[in-house]
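Hi Y.,

Following your request, here is the sequence exactly as I used it, all 206 residues.
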Amino acid sequence: MKILIVADHESRRIWDFYEPGMLNKYDLILSAGDLHPHYMSFLATMCRTEVLYVHGNHDDCYEKMPPEGCTDIDGQVYNFRGLRIFGLGGSMRYKNGVNMYTPQEMKRRIRRASLQIMKNRGFDILLTHAPARGLNDAEDLPHLGFEEFLTLMDKYEPRYFIHGHNHKEYSSGFKREDRYKNTIVINAWETYELDYPDEWLTKGKR
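Below is the corresponding structure, written out as C-alpha cells. Let me know if you'd prefer a different format.
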C-alpha cells in the first residue's frame, strides 16, 4: 500500500504544478494537519482514494469550512482496508484555540477512544499533529510534544508514529525519520511517501 502523507505546508509541486494522474499511484492520503481546506479538497478531488486527516492547531477554520471530500478521523480509530489508524490532532495548549489541549485534556481524549482501540485490537499507525515528548519536539510550549503519545506507543507498539507541527525550517536538527522502540517515527512536513507492506495489513477488515 502506497501512502502519501502531508502536513503543515502546501506542496507547490502538487498544488501549483499539478499534472493529471500524478496522485493515482497512491492508495491512501493522510494529513497530519495545518493545511488549507482548499488544498485538502483539491487532493480529494484529484486522487482516486480516501483522504483522512486530523486537525492541526491552526485548523480552527475547518469548523466553518471543512475540507470537502475528506474524512476527519480525529479522536477515533479508522480501519482502511485492514490498516488501523488512530488519529489525534491538535497541539499543546499555549493560547485559546479549538485544537489545543493540555496534557490532561489529551489523556481524556485517549480514554474516550479506548473502547475503539480495544475493538480494533490496537492500531498500526498513530497519526497526530503534535510530536511526542522528546521526539522532534522543542522546549517552547507551542512546540512541546505530548508524553501521552509515548505511553500509547509503549502500550500498543504501532508500526508508525506520524506527526507534523515542527517544520523543517524550525531547526537545523530536523529529523524526517526517527525511531522509538519498535515504532518508526515520521515527521510529515509538506509531503512524505510511505510504502506500507500489504502483508502487515489486518486480514478480514474493510
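The chain has one domain: 2-200.

Thanks again,
Q.
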